[in-house]
Amino acid sequence: MNEYKKVFSKIGFNYLLLAMIPIFFQIIIANTIALWDINQLHNGNNQIIISSACNYILVLPIFIYLMRKIDSTDIDKKKLSIQTIAKYFCVALTLMWAGNLIGLGITALIGHATTIEIINPIEHLIQNTNIYVNAIIVVLLAPIFEELFFRKLLIDRTIKYGAKLSILLSALLFALFHGNLNQFFYAFFIGGFFAYVYIKTGNIKYSIVLHGFVNFLGSVVSVFVTSSAQNLVKGMSMANTGDIAIIGGYALILAVAWIVGLIAILTNYNKIELNDSAREIFLEKPFSTVMINIGMICFIIFHIFKIIKSLNLI
Predict the structure, then answer these.
(1) Could you give the angle at which helices 3-37 and 60-67 cross, rounded to 10 degrees?
(2) Rounded to whole angstroms, how far apart are CA atoms 149 and 145?
(3) S-S: 280 plus which of 40, 101, 160, 303, CB 3.0-4.6 Å?
(4) In Å, how far are 35, 38, 283 from 32, measured between CA atoms?
(5) Residue (of 165, 233, 248) closest to 199 by Cα position
(6) Which of 125, 148, 147, 153 is nearest to 212 (CA)?
C-alpha cells in the first residue's frame, strides 16, 4: 500500500471509529441509567439526548486526537456578503429538497416491492421528541459538530489532493454516515455544497449557519406546518385562518428559495472556480487510492449494512 492509500485508509478507520465509539458510550450510559430507573430509557427525549451526547460531545475530543495524526493544510479565509449567504441558503434548500425527493421515492419503491414498512428516521425523531429538545439538537448541536467532523477536520486533511476530491469525499462520508436511504441523497447533495462553501471561504462558521438554517426549516418549522395541515384536514374552524397563514407563508418561502436556488445552480454551474490546479499532490489513480483501501472499505461495508438494516431487509 503506497503512502497516499495509507492516509485515506487511516481516514476511513477514523470515520469508522466515529460511528462505533458512540455505541460503546451509549451502552455504558444506558446501563448506568437502567440501574437507577429503567423507565427513563423509554422516554424519547432522553433517548435523543443520550444519543446526541455520545455521537457529538463525548466523541469529539477522541476524533480530534485521531485526525490530528494526519497532516492538515490551512485554507485561505474569505468573507461572504449577506446577499451571497442568502443565495447559498436557497441553493442548500433546493439541493435538500431534490435529494429528499429522490430518497423518499427510492424508499417508497423498495417498500412497495418488498411490502415492508420503511420508517423515515427524521419523521420518527420529530414525532418522538419535544420541539425544544429537537431544536437544540438538530438546529444547534448537529450543525456545529457535523460540520467539524465532515468539513473542517476532513477537508483540511484532503484539500492538498484537490478541491473536487475533498468535496466528493466529504459528501460521500456524510451521506453514508446517516445510515439510511431516506437521508442519503440529500445528505450527499448538501454535504458536497457545504464542503464547497467551506473551501471557498476557509471559515467553518458559514457552513454551520447554512446547515442550521436548513435543519431549522426542515425539522422545526415543518412541525408547525404539519400541525396546521392536520388541523385543516380535521376542519378546526377556529384555527383555519392561522393555519392557512402558516402553510401559505411556509410554501411561499420554499417556492422563492427553490426558484432562486435553481437559478443560481443553473447559471453558476459552469462558473464555479475551485482552483484545483493549486493542489499540492496529484494522485495518478484517485479513485483506487481514496476508496480501495482497507480503512475505507471497512467504513463503507459498515454503513451499507446499516442502510440495509434500516430498510428492514435483514
Answers:
(1) 170
(2) 6
(3) 160
(4) 5, 9, 48
(5) 165
(6) 147
CB of 240 within 8 A of CB of 231? yes
Give the residue-averaged pLDDT of 229-244.
69
Closest CA to 204 of 84, 78, 56: 78
Residue 118's Cβ-count burial label (10 Å; 0-12, 13-18, 19+) is: buried
Q: Assess whether pLDDT exceeds 60 at residue 239.
A: no
Q: Is the dihedral of CA 286, 290, 292, 293 positive or negative?
A: positive
CA distance 58 to 293: 28
Q: b/e map of 208-218 (b: 16 or more CB within 10 Å)? A: bbbbbbbbbbb
Burial class (CB in 10 A: 0-12, 13-18, 19+), 104: middle
Least reliable range by pLDDT among 7-21, 23-37, 118-132: 118-132
The neighbour count for residue 266, using CB atoms within 10 Å, is: 9
Place of cell 392561522: 242
Cβ(246)–Cβ(229) below 8 Å: no
Per the document, the length of the chain is: 314
Q: Yes or no: say if 176 and 115 are a contact pair by the CB < 8 Å rule.
A: no
Predicted confidence band at 190 (pLDDT cuts at 50, 70, 90)? very high
Overall pTM surpassing 0.90 (yes/no): yes
